[in-house]
């Protein structure tokens, strides 16, 4: 199955290469349609794309958690199936509130500093793909450094990052369960990535598709599922991290500080010697009540010490 998916990606890329003139024309046609629309020309179009994408991807994972038959979803489940508690935020912490906290400051900034310019020419198909992947990597490099600092400096962890680690059995909702400071930090990494790549702003079409892609990947990372069609199972060599890695990060807080780029953890030496298996992840305590279960980065505490091997695997 895995080899077939990898093969499909290679064949798809080869087809785009062979028919690149046609692919470039398609991208240009889509961009010609988009750039004349008033809502695309709006200063706050990209933040709105991000919020709308988050809403769609959250709805998708809600269906996985709460609607699809468990007999189907269980085969992909890393941690136990969510109940409604996972989808219920504390008072004042609804998904809509998180969206408002995200979009209102950006909309105000756009109003004060209008700068949206839409070029007539679209990027080539390969240029588009390259810009999106490069922005994802740039975002993750910046996020990795910030994330490592959040786990290394205890006061920072407690005041900025602990909220995101409150539930050990992560679901897609955790993607936006961020303190205001962490939300600013996360958005800053993204803004820096889209504006500084190659010392210029990436094409608006690339930026919009980056918004759609990264919001999907972040919700997928927190979904608690590991399906064969996820990027982490298609891209070989552990280059791309997925939900199992991030679930382990939420559980131990000691490894896998990158969201996507596995090589960042390899370079930094933050890959565990022996990754937790899915049953271990499933059997860990569901909640920490805001207490950091793990030792700060730098101390040699095995995740297995904090969560001994369960006798019964809860899959
Ligand atoms: Zn997370
Ligand atoms: Zn963390």
SSE order and pairing:
Blueprint: H1 2-18, H2 20-35, H3 38-41, H4 45-67, H5 70-73, H6 84-87, H7 95-112, H8 125-152, H9 154-161, H10 180-196, H11 204-221, H12 231-234, H13 243-252, H14 262-268, H15 278-283, H16 303-306
The structure holds zinc ion (2 copies).
Distance between the termini: 22 Å
Supply the helix-strand structural class.
Answer: mainly alpha
Bound molecules: zinc ion
- What is the count of distinct domains? 1
Give an account of the 3D structure.
- By secondary structure, the protein is mostly helical.
- The protein has one domain (2-306).
- Helix content is 60%, strand content 0%.
- The protein has 16 helices and no strands.
- The chain has helices spanning 2-18, 20-35, 38-41, 45-67, 70-73, 84-87, 95-112, 125-152, 154-161, 180-196, 204-221, 231-234, 243-252, 262-268, 278-283, 303-306.
- It is globular, with a radius of gyration of 20 Å.
- It binds zinc ion (2 copies).
- One zinc ion binds at residues 147, 151, 161, 165, 249, 253.
